[in-house]
Amino acid sequence: MTLIHNRVGEIAGLTAAGLALALVLFLPSSAYAVSCSFTRDLELGDMGEDVRCLQQYLNSAGFTVSSSGAGSPGSETTEFKSLTHAAVVRWQESKGVTPASGYFGPKSRATYAVALAGGSPGTPSGDTSGGGSSATPGAVQSLLEKINDLEKKLQDTKNTQNGSGYESGDADDVRSLMEDVIDMIEDAENEIDDNPDAEDIDDAEDSIDDAKADLYDGFRAYIDGDFDEALDYLEDALDSAEDAFEFAGGESAEDDAEELIDEVDERIDEAEDEIDQADEDGEATSESEDLLDEAKDRLDEAKDAFDEGDYEDAIDLAEEADELVDDALDAIGEDSNGGDEDDLEDRLDELRDDLDDAWDDVDSAIDDGDDVGDAEDYLNDAEDYLDDAEDAIDDGDYDDAEDYLDDAEDAIEDALDEL
């Protein structure tokens, strides 16, 4: 696989699913009334609301699907049939999309974005970017030509060896960041729409313009294969989009993370007091204490992530800590094995009976003159363990009691093995 093949493969997904969205984000609305968000290629036999939107666009743009009945203006359908196919062919021919096959694929979707922006391939009409963006229809056409050139080179060179200078991971980083930028711009614009009277609304709108301009430049650098430059532009775009979001009154991930960490920190302190009080009241708290310790560890990890600027991770970790606090409070009165004081006392009584039986066996062996080895020592140890278990149960230390009972059971078995 060649370098060109790799780059086209990396670009293909963005061309098909992200190019139209990215261009529409930083280019102005056109006179066309219908704006569609195409997330897949469309062809004969396809069905869906995106097909209906395509028909509506074609009808509004002068490429009428049908003059009457299904597919006509106001009666668009969700089915991609022959009439839709024919209308797409006419539209492709008018826009210079080759081949004009009626398949609404990556080239058609990119060309649609340009048409929606008020330009058309090969017919630049001046700077329509708005907001400081460098994206004129002519500039967008240049991008489309680059994509077409790459696709052609792919066909010509797909069987040659890779001569590479780029790693796919670099392109992955760019695409991932580009998606983050687009999402952040959308969030910021929604915040601006929701808060038109915000004190810093002018700053928000200026920052959005900066973000869109950098997004466009980052996309161009990506198409050119300069991934380092693309990352620089996109990081600036993300910063500007985040600024716009905050200027419009939105809370950033940093603010959300900091607020949640403080809330969970306070909850842990309150839970600790509640667990201490339960312990004083004689309730089982060992399981609660273990869970609360886990919550503290998780919150420490959240604080570390916050200090490193990983705010989304910080939020996730703080939420996990918050859930552990809930679990700790729910576990008050339970031992780690899910049992209770009565269960442990029943087991203690059973083991005392087993111990008495074991002493009888040892005594009988001694009367018969048999060697009992260390059996007596094991049974003495078992008695000590059972006494410790009884004390632990009385103190509400059910984890310790369970451990002592396990030790006593082992010691009794060891004693019997000596006989």
Describe the fold and architecture.
With 419 residues, the protein is an all-alpha fold. The protein has four domains: 3-127 and 137-157, no CATH class; 168-247; 253-330; 341-417. Helices cover 69% and strands 0% of the residues. The protein has helices at residues 3-26, 49-60, 82-95, 106-116, 137-157, 168-194, 201-223, 227-247, 253-280, 286-307, 311-330, 341-367, 375-395, 398-417. Helix 9 runs antiparallel to helix 10 and helix 10 (286-307) packs antiparallel against helix 11 (311-330).
Radius of gyration over C-alpha positions, nearest whole angstrom: 36 Å
SS-derived structural category: mainly alpha
Distance between the termini: 75 Å
Number of strands: 0
Q: Can you count the helices?
A: 14
Could you say which overall geometry the principal axes of the C-alpha atoms support? elongated
Uncertain segments: 1-33, 119-143, 150-169
Strand content: under 5%
Mean pLDDT: 78
Number of structurally distinct domains? 4
Q: Which keywords apply here?
A:
mainly alpha, 419 residues, 0% strand, 14 helices, 4 domains
